[in-house]
Amino acid sequence: MRINFTILLFLIGSFFITGCSDDEITPDPVQPVPIFEALEAAIETKMDQYNMPGASVAILKNEKLVYLKSFGHADKEANELATNNSLWRIASISKPITVVAILKLVHDGKITLDQKVFGPDSILGNDYGEVPAGSNKDLITVLNLIDHKSGWINTPYDPVFLDNSFSRPQIITGILQNRPLTYTPGTTRFYLTWVIPY
Q1: What is the CA radius of gyration of the chain?
Q2: Tens of pLDDT along 137-188?
Q3: What distance in Å separates the CA atoms of residue 183 and residue 28, rounded to the nearest whole number?
Q4: How far is 190 from 151, CA to CA, in rounded Å?
Q5: What pTM was estimated for this model as a whole?
Q6: Which whole-number Å values give the CA distances from 50 to 17, 158, 159, in the listed order?
Q7: How far is residue 62 CA from its own chain's centroid?
Q8: How far apart are CA 117 and CA 126, in angstroms?
Q9: Which residues, listed in sequence order, are joined to residue 23 by a DSSP beta bridge?
Q10: 62/189 Cα distance (integer angstroms)
Q11: Assuming Cys at both sites, which of 28, 39, 73, 165 could form a disulfide with 54, CB separation 3.0 to 4.6 Å?
């Protein structure tokens, strides 16, 4: 089983460790750097605290990779150690990237934030089936999705992890057709998170 955790630290501008100058950072991320010892100890402490089997950490400064290290296991059951080439699910890290892409589409005039996502005259139309009558799912806007106000919650389970063999279209169709809204779109913020069993 793959471990679904990622830690990515992107540092822009000044470095966060007090007293660290540009000269102290090696451009080769595979060489040990004494200033990162405290960081590595903190990461290992948090991994123990939260029972995290594995993680990879990358730090950038001025658009250059200055640190890269992997900890623990990429696959604990197979006793596969994490390496700098291990593949990880990025989970919620994809959300800000998605928002930037959406805002670029808004800026370019291709969509609007108040545009409906599902149903007739919406962005997706009926690509994932007709919106069930009376479900209010045809009220969901782009902004509702960005703002976590779609009306969906992820209990009793997160549908994304229901069956790993499902394609994205199958997941979206399943949610649209079968998962009722808990709230009216636009009224209640609910950040969709999930718990991943080991």
Answers
A1: 21
A2: 999 999 999 999 999 988 777 777 777 788 889 989 999 999 999 999 999 9
A3: 50
A4: 8
A5: 0.63
A6: 24, 21, 24
A7: 23
A8: 10
A9: none
A10: 35
A11: 73
